[in-house]
Amino acid sequence: MDSTFNYLARRLLWVPAILFFVTFVAFALARFGPGDPVRVAAGNFRDPEAFERIREERGLDDPIHIQYYTYMKGVVTRLDFGDTFRYRDFSVNEVLFPAMWRSMQYNTVALAITVGVGIPLGIFAARRQGTWMDPASISSFLVLQSIPALVMVPFALLFFSLKLGILPASGWPRDCNVVVPGLPPGYECIGVISTEAIIPVLALSLPGIAIWGRFTRAFTVDVMKEDYVRTARSKGLSEYQVMKRHVLRNALLPLSTVIAFSLIGLIEGSFFVETLTGVPGAGRLTFESIGGRDYDMIMAVVIIGSTLYLLTSVAIDILYTIIDPRIRIGARNN
Amino acid sequence: MTSNPRGFLFSIIFIGVAAFMMACGGDDSGGGGNDPLNPNGGSGSNPGAGVDADLRLVGGDPITLDPALAGDEGSATYIVELFGGLVTIDRNLQIVPDLAEAMPQVTTNADGTQTYTFKIRRDALFHDGRPVTAEDVRYSLNRTAKLGQTTSATAEAYLGDIVGARDVTRGRADEVSGLKVVDNSTISITIDSPKAYFLAKLTYPTAFVVDKQQVEANPRNWTRKPNGTGPFKMVEWRLNERIILEANNRYHLGAPTVGRVLFLLAGGSVLTQYENDELDVAGISTLDIERVQSTRDPLNAEYKTGPNLSVSYIGFNTKTPPFDDPKVRQAFAMSIDRDQIARVVLKNMAPVANGIMMPGLPGYNAQSKALAFDPARAKQLLAESKYGSATGLGTVTITEIGGGANAGVATQAILEMWRNNLGVEVSIAQTEAASFFDDLDRGRLQMFDIGWIMDYPDPEDIIDLLFHSTSRQNNTGYSNPQVDSLVTQARTEQDQTKRFQLYQQAEQMIIQDAPWIPLFFGRDHYVVKPNVKGYEPLPIVLPRLRYITVE
Amino acid sequence: MAREITNVATEIGPGSEYADVEVSSVSPLGLAWRRLLKKKIAMIGLVYILIFYALGSSAPLLTEAGIINHYREQDLEVSQQGPSPEHPFGTDVLGRDLLSRCIWAAQTTVIVTVATLLTGGLIMGVSFGLLSGYVGGWVDTAIMRIGDAFASLPTILMLILINATLKEQVRDAARSVEDFTGIGGIVASGAPDYFLVFGALSIFGWVGIARIIRAQILSLRETEFITAARATGASTKRIVFRHLLPNVSNIIIVSLSLGLAGIAGSEIVLTWFGVGIQPPHPSFGALIFEASGVRTVNAYPHLLIFPGLIVAGLLFGFNLLGDALTDVFTPKAR
Questions:
Q1: What per-residue string of b and e applies to B286-317 under the rule 16 or more CB within 10 Å gives b?
Q2: Residue B97: phi, psi to the nearest 5?
């Protein structure tokens, strides 16, 4: 275990190094790519000298390592991600974090639906293996997974919103139904509890149901064949106890991996669903920022996303070694 | 995983149903006094009924609400309702007094400068009740100029004619010398020479009045609830969600006839929301225009249309090959059948441009003729040019702003026409706005496809600004000494008719030289709920919400 | 011949799972193929994919032969018409035949998926995975940490940024190649765009496969079989090619087939954002983008239905195939 511990410690130490690389690359790309946010904000209006002055005032003319240092200092010491060009009257934090909160609401509900429907469906299909219901359910899973959101959402909107008029055409409630008092402005609305949220949440959850369903089914089928499961059954343990004791333990590893990485996805939004249905979430915000070359917004998303990913990755590795000592990570080939 | 998957499933369903019911039930319970939309409680989902209903519009988040910094239409839409300046534009595009009591006294001075003296209305108040003074006006204009030094891209263009303004925007001085507070309610502004369009420039947000105390007390956040002088006050700005404006009942030009205006920023299909009765006004696109224009459709009664002061065009870089030869430019212009595109692709929603200046703009020339569609002549011109043929042109690329997967539909149609009528293969480059303007500024584009929206209703804003050889906004590199002299003359010509004639002459020359291919003029199409009165199509952004009534 | 069955924990992603590894001398591929043929649903998927790829590849030929139109051919007078005998899929707003455009779009998908697969998947992913798993040590660390760095960046974001930033440079490079070699038409054919798209997709795509291969190699490395081979003095090269590769080939196939769906999807996303293949070259991203507004779907549903069905079918086929392959490589008999 010692070498593994060393290994993991070293893994953790790598995180800042990788983060530095990642953020610097993103920073360089954003600032040195063609285009200039000062210019975009002015639109059709040209005044190169005014733009120069503005660039200077914002420090956009300093050498890149100075710009990078200034920016990262703000992030690390004050969690200040800078100012945004698109929303001049607000800082990146004030724009991005509420948007992430909104996306998180939708994604969390979608994830709950996905897991809550996908797993039982997967088990159901696995238990019916050999009957017609098995391939039928696999096929339905696959159909769900194969229809891109880009195609599904417009039709859903067409039927429910346009033709039938039973669901609203926008994705976020205009009069918030559930307001949590005490939360700061921008965060107090739990917009996911509304009729407006139905189509976006469904669009987000349906493909996932298929994935989880297939995964659970395959996994369950596999495990059910194992000798020790048969032994356990012959010993008289109930179906559920078998599941719990054996399946659960073996499921822990892959399950936690999937969950961990899904959790990261919670704060990112799906750009398509958000744009097509009109949800003011982080996904939409991120991609609008790229078009508008809103550097600081882009950087904030990259930093937050990368950090979460790296930490999760290390956490998973730790879990791996704890649960399955057969994997000796880091041993050299001699 | 739980030991009872069935139970788990049931609980999920239960929660889902409960949430759904809460969502449905929540619509009618409304808030108490906490919901800004329903101070008296009651139904929130059907404000169309009853007195003092809200006007529900769709909109986008403004880039900023600071009038000194705003350069885009989106921000201007809100700014003109929250703030005001000495003069404004009314719905007939006439310049009329706003904070000023009357149109200014104009005196020409011995040194060639011109002074405008304004007297400020006694009943002009900020939203918090404080009276507006001449010092407020001076402070605001000065502030804009100072911001021109650092963050405002528009300051110098709109205030630059004032004596001393350029000293401030360039950092050489701290105070604009041409602004003088004569007494508590009188201010004089001196400009460097008699310019006929100066008052028009004063209607632009750069000249709006802001509250000095508020700005200095709260420099970062004051724009979230600005204390302006306009017909509406800000109630709430929930970023990406909504903006709520409330009538300023003490507004000096007359209280608004609508109580509150709600702008929905979150997105979603606009016309669908309109049809579901969630919005009061919705724009119409080519997808629905035929339906809406047909008299059999119920929406037809709610349909309104009007010109807007904008023009879309293809611009050439006249300084680099192959478009440095006017014959090539003319050839390209004459091989496009704009009528067909307008009819089929645009479904006649936008009129074909017959020149540079558009209908509704003072100075518009209805007799003007753009270069006609004549493919035979076009081929001839190409042959006569110094490149001789299509292959002699080398690679030709047209650039446009594109965020999505496809170039503008009209552009693709035009490309095919060039291919079929002229034999030239043009490729499209789509870039996002950032790169586009950068490349445009640096003269890297051969041909580009864009539009121009008028900022104020005066030909100077287009003929002078875009075609004078030394103008910063000249994005084609066009240089014609005759046009230059006509336009310079027009700057100080006091007789309006003669002035417009000068611009029209210049326009004809420009059409012939073809640094632009003017394509289509702008036109707005939308539907308005029958219970909303006073919402008329307007050619440019100007304050208009206070004339609307929602019954 | 030692027959060993080992449970191996692989990096779990959607669809992948515990795979049983047979270390034997009978060709696993031959057995697998026979099993696959027996699965009818998978066959349908395979056939669909083959038809798709065949049509896509032959788009230029079909146009020469006059069977379909060139994708730019427009006829403004028949704009936006529904399906008819001359235009089985209808026409778009410029009167272009939708069926022809779909087939040309298929060509785009074919080029991008094949190129990305070969580069990112096979070449980069497998090599790095093998290297990392077998050699271990600092090589392993280096590769994995670099992989971490790439994987932690929000993929779509970076793809868009890279594409937007480097597009001009790549085009200029292509032009100089044109001048140098005298081969014309490189830029006009859209090759630089394709290169950028599959290049970017490869750079971000190799990490997943590499990790899976690496994990597999890690456990294989310690099996008696390999240890024995090493003990008898077999060279590294021989071990890798004769023993390791065949035993990971099944995982490679499964991962790649599942990855195809992801690649095709990513290409669509990129084009949707305007950073993929440029107009007028059609791609499914472009076709779907044109058609996905609610009002558009209401007015001209055929514009979304046909490309949507085709894409859904393709993804469905990939998923079916991947699923079937996974089943096939898991022996059921005990």
A1: bbbbeebbeeeeebeebbeeebbbbbbbbbbb
A2: -70, 145
The C-alpha atoms of residue B544 and residue B541 are separated, in whole angstroms, by 9
CB contact under 8 A, A147 and C41: no
Partners of B12 on chain A (C-beta within 8 Å) are 112-113, 116-117
| Residues B237 and B224 sit within 8 Å (Cβ to Cβ) | yes
Q: How many residues does chain A have?
A: 334
Residue A272 one-letter amino acid: F
pLDDT digits (tens, 9 = 90+) for B502-539: 999 999 999 999 999 999 999 999 999 999 999 988 88
Q: Which of A33, A146, A258 sits opposite C164 (nearest CB)?
A: A33
Give the CA angle between residues C16, C18, C19 to the nearest 5°: 90
Identify whether the C-beta of residue B278 lies closer than 8 Å to the C-beta of residue B261: no
B272 and A162 Cβ atoms separated by less than 8 Å: yes
User: What is the pTM assigned to this prediction?
Assistant: 0.80
Q: What is the 3-state secondary structure (H, E, C) of B278-326?
A: CCCEEECCHHHHHHHHCCCCHHHHHEEEEEEEEEEEEEECCCCCCCCCH
> In B30-154, which residue ranges form alpha helices assigned H by DSSP?
73-82, 134-150
Taking only the tens place, the pLDDT of each residue in A252-298 is: 666 666 666 666 666 666 777 888 888 888 888 887 787 666 777 88
CB contact at 8 A, A91 and A97 = no
Contact C280 B415 (CB under 8 A): yes
Cross-chain residue pair A151–C292, CB shorter than 8 Å: yes
Give B65-78 as a 3 state SS string.
CCCCCCCCHHHHHH
Given this model, what pLDDT does residue B21 score? 31
ipTM over 0.90: no
The pLDDT tens digits of the residues spanning B301-312 come to 899 999 999 999
Chains that touch A (3 or more CB pairs under 8 A): B, C
Of all residues in chain B, the one with the smallest CA distance to A94 is B239
Nearest-by-CA chain B residue for C286 = B405
Which one, of A164, A198, A189, lies nearest residue B21 by Cα? A198
CB pairs under 8 A between A and B: 225
Query: Per-residue b/e over C279-305, b at no fewer than 16 CB within 10 Å?
Result: bbbbbbbbbbbbbbbbbbbbbbbbbbb
**Mean pLDDT, rounded, for C181-202:** 70
For chain A, 334 residues long, give each residue's pLDDT as a single digit of tens.
Answer: 566 677 777 777 888 888 888 888 877 776 666 566 666 656 556 667 767 777 777 677 777 788 888 888 888 887 888 777 788 888 888 888 888 888 888 888 888 888 888 888 887 877 777 777 777 777 777 777 777 777 888 888 888 888 887 888 888 887 787 888 887 777 888 888 888 888 888 888 887 787 777 777 777 777 777 666 667 667 766 666 666 666 666 666 666 666 666 666 666 667 778 888 888 888 888 877 876 667 778 888 888 888 887 887 777 777 766 666 555 444 433 3
DSSP sequence for C40-70: HHHHHHHHHHHHHHHHHHTHHHHHHTTSS--
In chain C the domains, ranked by start, together with CATH numbers, are 64-78+86-333 (1.10.3720.10)
Please give the pLDDT value at position B11: 30
* Digit-coded pLDDT (tens) for B318-331: 998 889 999 999 99
How close are the terminal C-alpha atoms of chain A, in Å?
Answer: 19
Instruction: State the SS3 of A148-213.
Output: CHHHHHHHHHHHHHHHCCCCCCCCCCCCCCCECCCCCCCCCECCCCCHHHHHHHHHHHHHHHHHHH
Q: Count residue pairs from B and C with Cβ separation < 8 A.
A: 81
What letter does residue B546 receive in the DSSP assignment?
Answer: G
B439/B422 Cα distance (integer angstroms)? 27
Name which of A30, A142, A313 is nearest C161 (Cβ-Cβ): A30
